[in-house]
């Protein structure tokens, strides 16, 4: 089996799973309880938060646990709208965000907020000048992703941060769900960023757990009210086994980051170079340093993405049609259409997404299978 769908989800690391099991077995107390079991669980919660903060070079109080990327994005966007609505009702994002951002914005539009969706160039990059032009006195939030989940474009966060230095009251949010562990730490944790979303299951932690970074002093209205966990910011009994497991996954990710980035980049470029020689293949992910190491999006003209995915599955190779969320709905990629790719080409798009668990040998096997399958696809197209 060759698993090339790591942007949809990753396999839980065995050591991370072990932490999950051990914590479930030995620290099942509620961190809010006053007795010894509660105290032990609370200590582990504190330790996990500290560990994640120290790996990322931020303060423990700036880490708030969530159920994953979708909750993090919803919280920052809707929580900003609620916290800052008396100052303004205008938000800015891009045309290529994940639905967790896009649909949160649309929900706010239904409530009377105004949203500007910035266009992108043919590589999927926002133009900082467009952001500058879109800023208004009533803008309260700018939300731009770190790495696009469909084609792997790295957005120009440093330039955006620079522009936002002159707008200190505007919340700056980065969805870094696809960016953690991909060699762009300083770009994500730039001087100006206020909120960052992360999701555990994208880096070998269990699903259903994630966190946001929230800069000290920057306020969001909570979305989940109740028992006052996470210092009153996000109520609900903490998912301690998953939190401790995620802390371990962050440590492993950071320890292994340079090796993983080098491997993923080498494999991605080797696959890209191979695919380039086929007439009917269109490649959407570029080679420069503004493309993440792990995502390669391409189409075969005249063949539907789902046909390609199922054909490779027969050979034990798992790919995806752009984003996992839109694939079952049969939607064409909004990122590709924002990049100006014709719908008849975009319909054939598939995504290879890598992790440090892939190997160059798997890449060679993919190439062999591709050569055979391409001949069959040509007859279809
Ligand atoms: C860029 C991006 N943001 C947000 C999400 C949602 O994360 P989750 O699956 O943890 O809810 C994803 C998931 O694919 C993503 O790729």
UniProtKB/TrEMBL annotation:
InterPro entries associated with the record: Aminotrans_V_dom, Aminotrans_V_PyrdxlP_BS, Cysteine_dSase, PyrdxlP-dep_Trfase, PyrdxlP-dep_Trfase_major, PyrdxlP-dep_Trfase_small
Domain Aminotransferase class V intervals: 2-365
Gene3D superfamilies linked: 1.10.260.50, Aspartate Aminotransferase, domain 1, Type I PLP-dependent aspartate aminotransferase-like (Major domain)
Pfam family, one: Aminotran_5
Keyword presence, Translocase: no
Cofactor: pyridoxal 5'-phosphate
Keywords in alphabetical order: Iron, Iron-sulfur, Metal-binding, Pyridoxal phosphate
Family per record: Belongs to the class-V pyridoxal-phosphate-dependent aminotransferase family. NifS/IscS subfamily.
Name this protein carries in UniProt: Cysteine desulfurase
């Amino acid at each position: 089996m060759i698993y090339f769908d790591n942007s949809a989800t990753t396999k839980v690391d065995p050591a991370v799973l072990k932490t999950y099991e051990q914590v479930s077995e030995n620290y099942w107390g509620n961190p809010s309880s006053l007795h010894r079991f509660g105290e032990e669980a609370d200590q582990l919660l504190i330790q996990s938060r500290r560990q994640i903060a120290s790996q990322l070079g931020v303060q423990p109080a700036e880490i708030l646990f969530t159920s994953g990327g979708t909750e993090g994005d919803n919280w920052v966007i809707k929580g900003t709208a609620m916290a800052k609505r008396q100052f303004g009702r205008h938000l800015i994002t891009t045309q290529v965000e994940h639905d967790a951002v896009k649909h949160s914005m649309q929900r706010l539009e239904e409530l009377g907020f105004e949203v500007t969706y910035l266009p992108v160039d043919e590589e999927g990059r926002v133009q900082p000048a467009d952001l500058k032009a879109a800023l208004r006195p009533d803008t309260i939030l700018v939300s731009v992703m770190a790495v696009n989940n469909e084609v792997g474009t790295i957005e120009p966060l440093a330039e955006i941060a620079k522009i936002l230095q002159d707008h200190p009251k505007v919340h700056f949010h980065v969805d870094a769900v696809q960016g953690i562990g991909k060699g762009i730490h300083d770009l994500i944790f730039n001087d100006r960023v206020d909120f960052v979303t992360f999701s555990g299951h994208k880096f070998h932690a269990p699903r259903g757990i994630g966190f946001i970074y929230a800069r000290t002093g920057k306020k969001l209205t909570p979305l989940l009210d109740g028992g006052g966990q996470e210092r009153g910011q996000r109520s609900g009994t903490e998912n301690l086994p998953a939190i401790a497991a995620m802390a371990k996954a962050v440590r492993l990710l950071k320890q292994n980051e340079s090796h993983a980035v080098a491997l993923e980049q080498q494999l991605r470029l080797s696959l890209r170079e191979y695919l380039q020689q086929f007439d009917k293949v269109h490649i959407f992910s570029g080679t420069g340093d503004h493309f993440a190491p792990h995502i390669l999006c391409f189409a075969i003209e005249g063949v539907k993405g789902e046909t390609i995915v199922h054909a490779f599955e027969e050979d034990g190779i798992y790919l995806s049609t752009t984003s996992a969320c839109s694939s079952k709905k049969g939607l064409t990629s909004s990122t590709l259409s924002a990049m100006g790719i014709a719908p008849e080409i975009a319909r054939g798009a598939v995504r290879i997404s890598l992790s440090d668990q892939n190997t160059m040998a798997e890449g060679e096997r993919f190439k062999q299978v591709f050569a055979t399958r391409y001949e069959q696809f040509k007859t279809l197209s």
